[in-house]
Amino acid sequence: MLHITSTEHGQACWQIANNRLWMESFTDHHSQAMAYRLRMDGTEIDIPNALSGVVYFGEADQRPELPFVAERFPNHRALWVAVEAA
């Protein structure tokens, strides 16, 4: 089941499977940057047709866990704390 957690600065979509929290996407409400997909190896693929400020994670059935995402977006600590609490 997909979960959505929000703060005033961002929104995270995530799910729990096999007792792990997997991140699906993250939206930075204050960013005008082009949307992109962040692969598990750290490379990025632009997604010009998506809403600005959105980051999609992984590919196919591979998704990162919360620490991977929190490390790359440390300015959204309040959101990661809220996701973990949920």
Q: Low-confidence segments, ≥5 residues, pLDDT <50?
A: none
> How much helix is in the residues?
10-25%
Strand line-up in the sheet with most strands: 1-2-3-6-4-5
SS-based class: alpha+beta
The fraction of residues assigned to DSSP E strands is 35-45%
Total number of helices:
2
Number of domains: 1
Number of strands: 6
Radius of gyration, whole Å: 12 Å
Our measurement of the CA-to-CA distance between the termini, rounded to an integer number of angstroms, reads: 13 Å
H/E element string?
EEEEEEHH
Query: Main sheet, how many strands, which sense, barrel?
Result: 6 strands, mixed
Based on CA inertia axes, which overall geometry fits? globular
Mean pLDDT: 94
SSE blueprint and pairings:
Elements lengths: L1 E5 L3 E8 L2 E9 L7 E3 L5 E3 L7 E4 L8 H7 L4 H9 L1
Parallel strand pairs: 4-6
Antiparallel strand pairs: 1-2, 2-3, 3-6, 4-5
Question: If you had to describe this structure to a student in words, what would you say it looks like?
Answer:
The chain is α+β, with helices and mostly antiparallel strands. It has one domain (2-85). The chain is 19% helix and 37% strand. It has two helices and six strands; from the N terminus they run ββββββαα. It has helices at 66-72, 77-85, and strands spanning 2-6, 10-17, 20-28, 36-38, 44-46, 54-57. Strands 1-2-3-6-4-5 form a six-stranded mixed sheet. The chain is globular and about 35 Å long. 19% of the residues are buried. The model has no long low-confidence stretch (mean pLDDT 94).
